[in-house]
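Human: I hope this is not a bother. Would you mind checking the protein record under this note? Thank you for your patience.
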Amino acid sequence: MSLEEKLSKIRDSPKLQSQQQTAVVLAAIEATLRDQKSEPTPTAFFAALLSLLKSQISTTGIANKETATAVIYLLDLVTPHVPAPLLRSKFPEILQSLAPALTHPEAEAPLLKSSIGCLESLLVVQDARAWEQPQTEISPRRAVAGLLNIAVDHRPKVRKRAQDALSKVLKNPPPSPSLDHPAADMCAETALMMLKNVAEAAAKQKKHKQRDGQANDPALIHTLQLIKTVATASGGWPSRKIDVLCELLLNISRSSNEYLTMAAFEIFEVIFAGMVEDEVSSAKLPRLLEVISELQPSKNDSSLLPPWIAVISRGYEVSAQIEPEDTFAKLPELFTMVSTFLESASHNIRVSASECLISFMANIIPDSVILEPSVYDEKTLEKVAKAATDLLSVRFQAAWMEVFSFLAAMFETLRWRSDPILRPIVKIVGELRSNESFAGKKEADAVISRAIGAMGPDVVLDILPLNLPRPPPGQSGRVWMLPLLRDSVHNTKLANFRSEMVPLSEALYQKVIDHGSREKTMEIKVFETVVQQIWSILPGYCDLPLDLVEAFDQSFAEMLANLLYGQADLRTDVCRALQNLIDSNKAVVELEGEDDLLLQSRVSKADAKKNLAHLAGFASNMLAVLFNVYSETLPNYRGTILRTINAFLSVIPEKELMETFERVATNLEASLPETGPQTQAEKQKQDKAHNKMPPMSHTLMDLVITTSLYLPRDSYPSLFRMAATMIDKDDDPQLQKKAYKLIPRLAESETGREALQSRNGELQQLLLQSAEKASAPARRDRLAAIAQIIDFLPPTDLHFVPAILSEVVISAKEVNEKAREAAYNLLVAMGEKMAEGGTVVQSKVPSMGTDAPTVEASLEEYFTMVSAGLAASTPHMISASITAITRILFEFHTRISKETVKNLLELMDIFLQNPNREIVRSVLGFVKVEVITLPESLVRPRLKPLLSNLMVWSHEHKAHFKAKVKHIVERMVRKFGVEAVEQATPPEDRKLITNIRKARDARKKKKLLGEEGDEEVEEKPKGKFESEYDQAVYGSESEDSEEGDSEDEFVRSRQQVNGRAKGGQKGGTYIIEDEDEPLDLLSNRAMGNISSTKPLRQRQVPKSLTKAKRDEESGKLILGASDDDEEPTTSKSKKGRRQVEDDGDVLMDVDDNDTTTLEAGINAYVDAIRGRDAAQRGQRGKLKFSNKKRGGEDDMDVDSDDEKKARKANSGSGMGRGGFKARSGGGGGFKTQRKGLGAVKQRNGASGGGGRVEKSPRGKGGGKKGGNFGRGAWHGA
């Protein structure tokens, strides 16, 4: 931005209050310049502002803070545009004027920031001679000293501005032979002194444990930030000050304050990063690394050693970028130095050391050493490998887990150079892994996996053979390596699989065959599993193999083909392997730029092309095999085969591709007459029979669709003829559905898009003629095909839009959700196409006459076309048209005229009065979109007629009309306010508005109370709709705003409350298990034991009835009684009734809160099947039904839990059959309450007691149903 633009911004729009004074000062200066007839140049502005500054700021103080701030602000804007010689000559004068502002104790942040800006502009233009002046004089050095003091100011903005100014000054040194800025040494020295003083002060406070011990930590962080600024700006820290800085930083980094440690490390990072970017400053690196190495702490210092190791790691990483060869030569020495720390007893030190070694491996070894190592490089790697092998000695046993992490990284870095230098490591780790008592098997597996990936499976298996199927004497089998091979093998020799794995697989499979059809033993099952594991390794061998041309020959291809035919279990692995062969080589060919053999794993682009050409020779035969296998495979398992077919189709030569396509097409034509009609009902029956194959024509059509993407342009005529034939087959919906998929499939390729564009007219006719034969299952794919035609529709063929429109509109009412969504998207796409312009020749539309006029395409015209459906004769079509208008209005309401919108709104008012519910339901959706999306100026004047028509349906309970109307009114209240909506509502319906207002107020009050009580307000659920349109039409106020209180919301909240009451389960799934035997999830009957509601505990039959106990008072023998039936118990029913027995006292708390939920009906059904009264299997498997009543279920029940202990032989009063007597006298009996569904009831007494309870004679006080509670305890027998 130029100076004039900045000034005009202040002049024209002083929005901020702080800018108003600046505008006044600017106007005064401009008026003065005009009076003096001076040009408004930067120099003139500068001179005027400087003279004004002297009058505002002096050594005695600041005359007017606001004016002074405005003057210095303008000076800050002007100074960068003033000629440099003038600024140099006026430097002492300007500095003397600014100094009071910078040093004044009452100077505010805006004044300081502008002053710093002026100072920055002055210092940047000073020459070398000016910088030579001492700090004692009025010189640039003195100004920098002031900036350094301000750079640790407690105010963040001031501090940041000063640091930015310092940074800019140091980054712009005057021309001189020196590497550093003349002031860099002074800045570094001053910053170091400040850091040292602040660090000492902080240490003293910490030592004396003062209460404000952390007071100097902010100052320390500010000073570290200043150090970072100086280090960043001056091209790295000055060489002479590096050792002092490193010592200070390492001492600070041992602090327990993580911010200080991070700040210290950031400074090291900045210094190192500056050296990478600047070749000149990189000369300081050797000295820096030497200083850091000399500062090595004690080997047992667990607080200082980890940060020191981290700095060393980063330092040599930078060194490797600047001097890769020299740094690599130091690797053995560095490795030895850091590896000694792995002996430490401190876990932190060991981890830091291993991470440092991993960093060395990743960063210090150059790519050239891996690709083309010299003799010297090989010797260096051998030294490192020998040192790494020593880490597996007993001396480092405590650090083996860290060592394993490093070894895994070492294999990953060295890649194929790991062989042979790391062979001893593989052998040692393999032997440790084979030891059953070894604890680090997971870490050892990681090392062996990396070794397999780096060296190749042939080398690793040579060192650690699998020893299968029978290990040699004295050796153990290593079947545990098969999963490691599966996950790690890649970019290796495919021939190794043929020579090692295939014979092993054949030997094991022969044992399975030799076993015959007898019952499989465990050994045979193991052999089968191992065979599958062996073949699961093949995809890894086929991932960019090094010897594809040699290893993948005719015999290997035939073997894979036989496996595809004969071994269904291995098809997935074989298909993945074949797919990997092609995809991995294609990925190399498609890479941009020059060959990077390290990235491309030693396979050049030329080699990859040769590999693909070699595979193309097998493509025709392999496709024939895959097609046959595909046709024999059930639909659920075809995905992998189809992906492999796609891979081979992408490399097959064009001639063979055409031959393959013609074979498939011929077979398809032959299979069509054999298929016969297949209705949707038959298709559903077939889906239920999972093992039934689909008709051959369906399979072949799938293959045609797959192949179509790769076909040349000249084969498209036959392809379109085939599609036309299928589309007309209305007796086979599935085949028709597949035919429609062809058009979107072709649109995926450039050739296909060109063909669709050129044949657009033919396809339009095809789709129009087949409209009557389109079946419901094919609707979605037909709409997708129409959408592709619309995309390529030329402006002259827009008559296709009205011709197909009625079908798209009626599809908006489809039962299938995806079909509806496709119809909505197509309606929008057609609108966009009409908005692009063109001509609609209406005489070409089949339903219109030949004399129909031609009209210009526009959105207005499109709305007219869709609105024509409102004149339909059937309510279903009218409803669909309203839904379609709703969708396109939501999309295009900002792009059509207000007149069109008003006409639509008036039209919908008429339809809102229609008695047909289907029509009104669509209109309610329109009204909701109207209220939400249209501007307030359009809707507010229509509130009164709209609400009067709307309220008629607020009394209609069917189809959720009442709730829908309430949602719309809630939206209105939110948009227009309660008062406006209430005035427009008919008086007899204003109760609804009152209800909404009260609910809103209650919610606000609750929210306010929740905030006052620091309670967490429950978050509203996120949007569950796929599009904004769905949210507008189907979403409710209750769901996405705090004003909602609908019936639906009430139901949902009741369900949520009850869900929380039951333990917070929301839609949980429960497994019902037998106590003796866990559920077998592989069983066919497993689904019968899985419930979406919490299962009820079934009553238990006593395991033994041999125990007996004689009642002392009655003399009766009670069978099945336990010894602890005197124990006090508590049982709580679902409805809240609690019965406590403790020394005969009775407490009953009855809660009448109704917690009935919408799930009650479902629970009742589940209760009937699995509840207490469900049928039980008795002796000889006979079904037994219990018609006994339990306590609390009926007042005539004699078998309740409490009565079993409450009966007395001499009971004289009771209720009905078998009452019981209260200890304090009075009428016995108890008030019954039916337990809630799902309540768990205990049998045989709460304490486990059991036995039969005898009936007692009807007592004097009984007979009345539901007698009163006796005051006192129930006295049980």
